[in-house]
Amino acid sequence: MRWTNYIMLCIGLSAIIFVSVMFVPAVANAIETELLSFLSTNAR
Predict the structure, then answer these.
(1) What is the DSSP string of the chain?
(2) Which pTM was predicted?
């Protein structure tokens, strides 16, 4: 995969995640829960 395709893929996925977090509360809650779980298990 060329780096331009990789950058476009990352930008596209970031935009989809951003829109879903901003406008779909259930998705935002699920992402927040997973993020807090990840951070709490990896905290030292």
Answers:
(1) --HHHHHHHHHHHHHHHHHHHHH-HHHHHHHHHHHHHHHHHH--
(2) 0.63
